[in-house]
Specification:
The chain is an alpha+beta fold and 93 residues long. 40% of the residues lie in helices and 29% in strands. The longest helix has 20 residues, at 19-38.
């Protein structure tokens, strides 16, 4: 589902909000999630799930083709953990 489809569905059910209002709110919502993650804050959405970052330290690896040692730089990786209600949806066929 795309952002425009979500906007359309919400604006159909919320009579006091037009497409522009809904789109502005959704974009602000997504921006707040991104900004929170940039500040290394966990984002928990009730009945949906949580977004969080894990830090990985720099380590020594190797190039599998040449077997040459390389340093893999430190990084952060984004994770999403769905809550039980959302997990249950994947069991529905």
């Amino acid at each position: 589902m795309t952002l425009s489809k979500i906007v359309k569905k919400i604006s159909e059910t919320e009579e006091e909000m037009d497409n522009n209002d809904v789109e502005r709110v959704l974009k602000k919502f997504l921006t707040e999630i991104k900004e929170s993650l940039k500040r290394n804050e966990e984002v928990m959405l009730q009945d949906f799930g949580r977004f969080y970052l894990k830090e990985f330290a720099e380590y020594q690896g190797f190039n599998p083709k040449t077997r040459q040692r390389i340093t893999v730089s430190a990084r952060r990786k984004l994770y999403f953990k769905p809550y039980a209600e959302l997990k249950a949806l994947k069991k529905i066929n």
